[in-house]
């Protein structure tokens, strides 16, 4: 049941600000429009077959089994992701921007994912003010993060930081109070989503400065937009374009429907009514895998190693073809290429490539990445097994960041995680709004499969 007729509960500890009220009314209004659709699907079409599950899919990571709902975005194998029906280029064009910038603001995409509406400039400004109000880290969290060994991977630090924030969960507190009603879950989930999104750049910047900048921190600037402020707290470049590249990174990585590892993990853990801090910390652990988010770190490392081995020689398609073959022969994947669902060049790559070509086409790694774009797909195609030989989002994101001096590749997946918080938490809000149940797919043994296969 889609939860309707919600009256914002009177017992809440603090009054909502006007912008949070606006968000809640917009989300609720959208949910009321969608409620009949969900009810009809459940009641009238619950038995409709969406497709069959094969033995191959059961063994093969559940590829192509349609079995989850994500209201926030939909991925088309050829065209790429759409946020609430809008392509990423639409988002770049239509979302409000920071003064003098051409990049659609990522926090505006958060609004879009939550409400299905492009926010006005005033709404994004108010949202930013609200996020700033919620952004301070509790002292206990600061102490936890500051006490971690500096050689702890930044992604480990981020997931520890998110878990350290968990005691602040409004959902957790309200649930423990024993009086929380099911149709109020989404309201408290939204509360946590907003606070988590507000705090995650502060936490992420603290980790960066602790690990790579001798613990010298740059204060948050409450006059700035969410992503621009994150860029200034990282403090690697005063170039206004560094803020833009950060905004672009955070807008492009925000959501990729719900079946990918980080989104699915967040959704799965959230389905047990674990609060958004627990859920997203789990998602971040999934993002830390090299086949998923960590690929951007691996990709830059691969490009840097390749450049070093070139020893100053111009990269050519012939040389890069050989490098790619050597990587495959050593049993490794070529990071930044391939995808579980996409069957075309990732539009996130296309937008970053355009940005790099417009702003720093002569950067040596950008030039190298261009040659990779020509050399690697044919090598992958020639294996006969790679379903998508084209570049994905990770093939250029690190290259764009290193141009501005952010070349600590171990940190790259943290930036991805700051962005993905937008999509994963919006999805949690909608899962609670739709009253989706705890997830529990059926698993079977090999013997069971063999018996079934023989029937
Ligand atoms: C993303 C990825 C994990 C998708 O995996 P997938 O859905 O299993 O992809 P495919 O169905 O095309 O894989 C078929 C085979 O091709 C291989 N393959 C796919 N992409 C490859 C790549 N970039 N380099 C080398 N081999 C690759 C797979 O490892 C698999 O080999 P196997 O049958 O020996 O196990 C995979 O393309 C990959 O490892 N890419 C590199 C890492 C990366 O960039 N990840 C970020 C994704 S946004």
Contiguous helical run count: 20
Distance between the termini: 38 Å
How many strands appear in the DSSP assignment? 3
**What string gives the helices and strands in order?**
HHEEEHHHHHHHHHHHHHHHHHH
What's the CATH architecture of the domain at 295-403? Answer: Orthogonal Bundle
Helix content: 55-70%
InterPro entries: Citrate_synth-like_lrg_a-sub, Citrate_synth-like_sm_a-sub, Citrate_synthase, Citrate_synthase_AS, Citrate_synthase_sf
Pfam families: Citrate_synt
Keywords: Transferase
Family: Belongs to the citrate synthase family.
Structural overview:
It is a single chain. The protein has 455 residues and is mostly helical. It has a domain of 109 residues: Cytochrome P450-Terp, domain 2 (Cytochrome p450-Terp, domain 2, Orthogonal Bundle). Helix content is 58%, strand content 2%. The chain contains 20 helices and three strands. It has a three-stranded antiparallel sheet with strand order 1-2-3. A hairpin with a 2-residue loop joins strand 2 and strand 3. The longest helix has 28 residues. The chain starts with 17 loop residues before the first helix and ends with a helix. About 2% of the residues have low confidence. The site of coenzyme A (COA) has 19 residues, from loops. This is Citrate synthase. Pfam families: Citrate_synt. Keywords: Transferase.
């Amino acid at each position: 049941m889609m939860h309707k007729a919600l009256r914002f509960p009177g017992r809440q500890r603090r009054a909502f600000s006007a912008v949070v009220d606006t968000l809640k009314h917009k989300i609720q209004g959208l949910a009321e429009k969608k409620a009949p659709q969900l009810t009809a699907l459940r009641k009238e079409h619950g038995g409709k077959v969406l497709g069959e599950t094969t033995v191959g899919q059961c063994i093969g990571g559940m590829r192509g089994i349609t079995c989850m709902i994500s209201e926030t975005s939909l991925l088309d194998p050829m065209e790429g992701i759409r946020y609430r029906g809008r392509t990423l280029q639409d988002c770049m064009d239509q979302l409000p921007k920071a003064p003098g910038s051409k990049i659609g603001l990522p926090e505006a995409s958060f609004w879009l994912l939550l409400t299905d509406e492009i926010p006005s400039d005033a709404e994004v400004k108010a949202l930013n003010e609200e996020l700033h109000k919620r952004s301070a880290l509790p002292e206990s969290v600061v102490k936890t993060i500051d006490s971690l060994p500096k050689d702890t991977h930044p992604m480990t630090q981020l997931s520890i930081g998110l878990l350290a924030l968990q005691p602040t969960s409004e959902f957790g507190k309200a649930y423990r109070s024993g009086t929380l009603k099911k149709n109020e879950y989404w309201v408290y989930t939204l509360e946590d989503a907003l606070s988590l999104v507000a705090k995650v750049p502060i936490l992420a910047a603290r980790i960066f400065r602790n690990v790579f900048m001798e613990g010298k921190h740059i204060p948050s600037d409450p006059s700035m937009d969410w992503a621009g402020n994150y860029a200034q707290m990282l403090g690697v470049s005063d170039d206004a374009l560094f803020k833009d590249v950060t905004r672009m990174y955070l807008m492009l990585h925000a959501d990729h429907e719900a079946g990918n590892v980080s989104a699915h993990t967040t959704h799965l853990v959230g389905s047990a009514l674990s609060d958004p801090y627990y859920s997203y910390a789990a998602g971040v652990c999934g993002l830390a895998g090299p086949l998923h988010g960590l690929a951007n770190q691996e990709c830059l490392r691969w490009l840097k190693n390749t450049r070093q081995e070139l020893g100053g020689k111009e990269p050519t398609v012939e040389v890069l073809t050989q490098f790619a073959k050597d990587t495959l022969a050593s049993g490794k994947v070529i990071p930044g290429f391939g995808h579980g669902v996409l069957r075309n060049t990732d539009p996130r790559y296309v937008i970053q490539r355009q940005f790099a070509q417009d702003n720093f086409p002569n950067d040596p790694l950008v030039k190298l990445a261009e040659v990779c774009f020509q050399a690697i797909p044919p090598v992958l195609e020639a294996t006969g097994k790679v379903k998508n030989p084209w570049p994905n989002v990770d093939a250029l994101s690190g290259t764009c960041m290193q141009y501005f001096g952010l070349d600590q590749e171990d940190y790259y997946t943290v930036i991805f995680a700051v962005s993905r918080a937008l999509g994963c938490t919006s999805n949690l809000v909608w899962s609670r709004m739709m009253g989706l149940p705890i997830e529990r797919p059926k698993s079977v043994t090999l013997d069971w499969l063999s018996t079934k296969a023989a029937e």
